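Record 1 of the preview.
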Amino acid sequence: MVAVLYAVAMAVLLAYGLNLLWLAVRYVRQDTLRPGPVPDPAALPEPDASWPEVTVQLPIYNEALVVERLIDACAMLDYPRRRLEIQVLDDSTDDTSALAAQRVRYWQARGLDIVHIRRMDREGYKAGALQNGLQIARGDLIAIFDADFLPQPTFLRQMIPYLDCDQVGLVQARWGHLNAADSLLTRIQAFGLDAHFAIEQYVRNRAGCFMNFNGTAGVWRRACIEDAGGWQGDTLAEDLDLSYRAQLKGWRFRYVEEVEVPAEVPVEINALRAQQFRWTKGAAETARKVMRALWRSDQPWRVKLEGTVHLTAHIVFPFVALAAVLHAPLLVLENLGRGPGALYFAIMGVGLLGFVGFFLAQLFAQRALYPDWGRRALFFPLFMAGSMGMALNNTRALWQALRGKRSAFMRTPKYSDTQARRWWTSRYADARIPPVVWLEGALALYCIAGLVIIAAYGEWAAVPFQVFFALAFSLVTLYNVQQFWQSKQGGTVRV
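->
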């Protein structure tokens, strides 16, 4: 039974790793020099009377530390004022609303068409706020920014030309990172997001497969949103849900890797846990909602297959946890003469291909985005461990989604540049130790014990994998404990 369950876990991890390998290989094949001169980034088209009206939507909820920065950045967008509207969609329950109202009045006095929209309740959460604003928006195009994003003034002038075809319903920009270098935690997140944008989004879009709106830093055609059924709040991933419904309706999306919009990544691990939980559960809920329609559509089989992998990618997490639990016992049984034999382990070696895919996707992403990509690639082991460490947290999210359990939309706290360095002093900080940490700590000790036993048996080929398991759960456990202690002491020790 141990051998069978371990083989199942490795087969699942191999399948999703091979998909990343395909994406990485496809990226390399398409990564060729483009004909003609190098484009001048400063040579942007000048908006004329033919350019459409744009509504910029800013959904916010208790974002007192960043809301003014966000409103000011969007007010500076270089677009004809008569064709620009900004909606501050404010569901806040704290003084964020007063700060937003004050900033809205400031820009209204300077001739900007900006409105502050409040609702009686938070029905539908972010999706509900966006849909509510859409009903009174005057723009043909809808740009959306979350509270921690800082669009450049040229954003609209860069993006709107990509909506030159009536069938294009969305253009999505690439996320940048305002605080990637702040800590080990922020570096790990930035590393993973880079692979999603530089490899996954890029290749899926170029290969004619479905991609997704990332919830922010994109421009929608209003007709596309309405044709697809509008924003719906029955999943925690309203952006992924609408993306698939729109593409199943025949709308085309474009990913614009040249346009970067920087944003914060979470500085506290509990905020990361909440974000990962929401993304994982939301993706699983969306898969349940749209998978049948995807396979019943007339899309090519490769689009259906890649869409399935895309929607279900988070399923790897319970199998990471399963592999971590079974890896050491399997080797112990083998050394006691009760294992599956040499052929079994030879076949399991094929799983290295999945690891290669995972590694190459990260490597090519760093190479695509940064001149010092070689140095950055050395960070891969810690990134991999940090990603694996979220296995129990995200498995819980999947379990809730499969059971159909509903949960509230948990916001990810954002901090200004100055507040982020002392995040634990903020009213939004959450430095507690959640129950899942005790399970992660126990699993860390279990994996460390397995590492000692494997080394004692001389199974040196298996030691690196066991090291990853031990490091993964030790890392997330110690990070939670460290941040809890930091908040209690009010110190400045940072990892």
